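Q: I have 260 residues here and want to know how they pack in 3D. Can you give me a structure?
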Amino acid sequence: MKYYRFSLDDNIWVFRDLACGRYHSIFDHPYLSFLRQIHEEFHTKIQLNVYYETEGFCLSEMPDSYKKEWEENAQWLRLSFHARANDPPSPYEKSGYDELFADCSAVQKEICRFAGQTVLSPFTTIHYCKVTPDGCRGLKDCGVKGLVGLFRPQDGEQVDYSLPKETEAYLQTKHFCYDEGHGMFFVRNDLIINAHPLSELEDVLKGKENETFLEVMIHEQYFYPDYPYYQPDFREKVCFVMQWLTEKGYRPAFLEEMLK
């Protein structure tokens, strides 16, 4: 059996929009409407990794009036912590236990308040994937069971999540592993959809059809026309990848369903 997991990073604008109160349903928002369309067409299970704040808005302002709807869709739509905010880059590269524990707890608390405990995923991707060992311990104490990273070494760069070099090397050829030192699972990302033109995605995916698992993702902001780096083919890119995965026999799954 072959599986894939699809996630979206940097999510906050959708919650800011929902907090304005002009949507009867969360799926009246075009972003979530599109994600539901993907689920209905391809049975995709989708995870949104969430910021606590953006300019002029923080997650505590998100109303709980949609909570029942979030809970009713938890079998395919889940949320998790990503970072406090989009800036600065690599926000936790030198952070200790307290900062990671506080930021993760803050986002988890709000998710449970407005969406319900069943929507909260214990797996996530931390913004830029750079976290100290103490920071990882803070995440673990928040209930995080596993982290997704790139594990593509660059000279002089900190290894994703401060993993031992041998674990990083292992993840360059394997999809996931459990690291005893961290007490967590680690999962290798296989595709960042927004990093490639639509015309190149087929070539990028070539050779991956016989893998047992693929981790694919995209970032929220590229969906919006007012974003400076808006990708007007955002929908087409996601649909292409989901269609490819489906045709190659991959089934959707959450990481918590696979790694226990």
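Q: Anything worth noting?
A: The chain has nine helices and twelve strands. The radius of gyration is 17 Å.
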